[in-house]
Input
Amino acid sequence: MLDMIANINGKINGFVWGVPMLILLVGTGILMTVLTKVFQISHIGYWMKHTLGSIFTDKHITKHTDQEDQSISQFQSLCTALAATIGTGNIVGVSSALLFGGPGAIFWMWIVAFFGMMTNYSENVLGIYYRRKNAKGEWSGGAMYYLRDGLGSKAGMKQVGAILAVLFSVFCLLASFGIGNMSQINSIAGNMKAAFHVPPVVTGVVLMIVAALVILGGIKRIASVTEKLVPFMAIIYIVGALVVCIANIGEFGHVFSAIFKGAFAMKAVGGGIVGSGIKLALTWGMKRGVFSNEAGLGSSVMVHSSSNVKEPVRQGMWGIFEVFADTIVVCTLTAFTVLSSGLVDLDTGVVISSAEGSALVGEAFATVFGSAGPAFIAIAILLFAFSTVLGWSHYGTKAFEYLFGSSATIIYRVIFIVFILCGATMSLDLAWDLSDTFNGLMAIPNLIGVISLSPVVCKITQNYVARKIKGEKIKPMLSAFPEIQKMQEKGLDESD
Output
């Protein structure tokens, strides 16, 4: 049965992740970069100040909402989104990209991230602009809403928007069990067995219980956990990776050379055909880049839309920072840790070590930390992957809510929790392949929505820049719906 699933999935995966999909993903990022006048560079000081900088200077960013308010703070929305994106892709995904695509894959991962910043920005702007409140008083936003209410509002597009919204929700449900559950839990179980000899079933049962305590509490409990867990795990991992990188800093010139040469097929991966080398580097770099930061999937917008922010652009800037932190910082550190440790022949791009996945990164850490290296990575995988499970449980919940109503979401949460045990005992290859397939299927309707609504993103961005940066006195664009626009205008201040 599993062989049949793997065979069918392989065919779908090959179709989904072909050249057209990569063009669609990167092309959308390029389009939004051009239309917003390279916002991620032209306003880098501004968005850095109002994201990372504001965490330390603006109490409104981190202040929790009142108990009766079902929205979460901007910082909580970022941490929950990062919880979902900073996962096994940052460790296992990067090492897989190096193994199959060579050092050049890292360059293409950077390219995906650079343009993906503006894709993620656009998703979040649209998410806030088209969000609504559900029966529980929670904000509900995401691709399904801007497909239905945004694309669907265009002449002759009502049915198309509605159908794409349903398709996105279905694909998101499937993806939540792949990228957001089974592949993450599988990596945890494998590492706990290798590092501490814990049986996968035991790992699965324990994680299932812990996840239930958090997930069944809803978005506010998930956000409360992730705002503590994400900064801790990210800082610890970054410090550890920096120690390894500093110890091998003499190799950095060679590492940069290998990345750029591999990216442009100035040498082939493993001495193969040059054309094949660049194809592998480009494909694996882009696939793992998307898996890691999820820009273009329309996933993180569902938690960003739960924020108490009023300005769509403010939440859009958190989307830029999310991709920057995930790929440019964490993934790059992982790559440089492995490449500088001597485990990869930088002249040929061949991985010398027989280790794969997280074990390769653990071996790189072992060159500095000794036997504690693999244990450190096992703990990092546990924290990274489990936080991803928490974040994706909310994405799946929102997709299920769109399809079946908010009162039925408890059914999804219970099923999601049970699947944690399945993920602990599943084949690693099948788990990752399923994740890639669901990612691609989810991205298609979302990117159609982003492209078709790109003029809306531009208008909202221009409106914000004119008001907040140029000081013009014009009416803000906060929501597509007059009643929500009026509500959001009340109390609008600098913190928004």
